[in-house]
Design brief:
Largest sheet: 10 strands, antiparallel, barrel
Radius of gyration: 20 Å
Distance between the termini: 56 Å
Strand order of the largest sheet: 1-2-3-4-5-6-7-8-9-10
Strand content: over 45%
CATH architecture: Beta Barrel
Length: 204
């Protein structure tokens, strides 16, 4: 008697499971093969000492945010940010959200203080620095920067699509907190104006 044929769906499922045993977290609803391929549990061992610059932020953080718009207006809100290892532990990706998801209802307005974007960070041994790419589809924004440690701070600098120079810094860094400072310059870095100030507290 012939064996029943396996469906294409069952074959795909078997191939996915055979790729490696999944942890309980990976078995949760909504975890896809793409996320499993993207995510990595730890940093690449060869580059571990260099990757610690941003690796120290792996986890979830609560944000207390002060925004100073270029038009002079000011707003304060609570946000969240999540960092994790990706691509065989050779890069870090994070997601910055503000206002935090628990305060959101319906579709976010296309306003500068509504952010739901992601940063991709990877270390380049050739220049002993990090390439930073930030993008937020809600704002139709992409920004590329170069990042290095400067003393006890982490400094990222790059021009936006309009040619405005932006400097983003991580300062006052501890294992449980850090401060993120976003500044802009119209004179190629001679002077800087504060745009965003975030105080982060470790959640997990």
């Amino acid at each position: 008697m012939s064996q029943p044929q396996r469906s294409e769906k069952n074959e795909r499922n078997e191939r996915t499971i055979s790729a490696g045993e999944r942890s309980p977290a990976q078995m949760r609803e909504g975890y896809t093969p793409m996320l499993e391929a993207l995510h990595t549990a730890k940093s690449n061992e060869t580059l571990a000492s260099k990757l610690h610059l941003y690796g120290q932020f792996i986890g979830s953080w609560r944000l207390d945010i002060d925004m100073h718009a270029l038009d002079g207006s000011h707003r304060r809100t609570e946000g969240e940010v999540h960092f994790d290892w990706v691509l065989e532990g050779k890069a870090i990706q994070d997601v910055w959200i503000y206002p935090a998801r628990r305060f959101r209802t319906g579709e976010a307005p296309a306003e500068s203080w509504y952010q739901y974007g992601s940063t991709f960070r990877w270390y380049d041994p050739a220049i002993d620095a990090w390439h930073i790419t930030w993008f937020d589809p809600n704002q139709a924004v992409e920004l590329r920067q170069i990042s290095r440690a400067v003393g006890d701070e982490i400094v990222q600098i790059g021009e936006d699509h309009s040619g405005l120079l932006r400097r983003w810094r991580f300062v006052d860094i501890t294992s449980e907190s850090f401060t993120w400072v976003g500044e802009v310059s119209w004179d190629k870095g001679s002077t800087w104006k504060l745009e965003t100030h975030m105080r982060a507290s470790k959640v997990s």
